[in-house]
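EI: anyone free to look at a 254-residue chain?
SC: sure, send it
EI:
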Amino acid sequence: MTETGSPSPPPGKRMLSDQVHAHLRDAILRGDHAPGAPLKPQDLAKEQGVSLAVVREALVRVVGDGLADRLPNRGFAVPAFSDRRWQEIAEARRTVEPVMLRMSVERGDVDWEARVRAAHHRLARTPVYAPGEGAYYSGEWSEAHRVFHRTLMEGCGNPVLLETFDRLWTAGELARRWSAHRSPDRDGAEEHRSLEAAVLARDGDTAAAILTRHLTLTAAALTDDGVDGTPDGTPGGTADDTPGGTADDTPDGD
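SC: here you go
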């Protein structure tokens, strides 16, 4: 008699769960749900027109992403933001990512170098802000930013460390969404250029030092007050206070 594990969910249910999971991720990152707000399965099921089982499965996955907390006897909720929470995330990133980057510099091959160069080119050419997306980074720039940083780490060749990076990155994106203050004197684009140059020069010590400083500056910016109390320190403008700022005007951008 053949033993089997837990049955997999039917394909249709899995597809619905994927859709609800993606919707919840996007909604939380957009700030549709306030820090600490409950995520009620009944309300979400009604909103999405799906079963409670589908919503609960999606919520468990969102918890795994670091975008929600599961509270004893209280269900699910968006994490309550605090400077301490962000500093803990930043400390974890400063501990893990420079080590991964050194490993990438040591182990990465020529194909990895090419991916790093391509990812940086895309980031540098992508506008930081987009019309209609408010004061926060555009979705396109945020994705290019994530891909650049992750590509730097992929040379390490360790899937467990890469999973850790993915979770910390997602949690960091949430913190940035809630506290997207700008450092007006900071040149994030130049930091990215310097990081790419050190990596491609196979200078692990310099690359790790640049990355550590990069993450430290971002952590400091996200726990200081904005220039005028608005996200990014601007009244909803772009990196150069003109519509459609370019990637060369990159703000904090870790």
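EI: Residues 1-6, 225-250 have pLDDT under 50 and may be disordered.
SC: 👍
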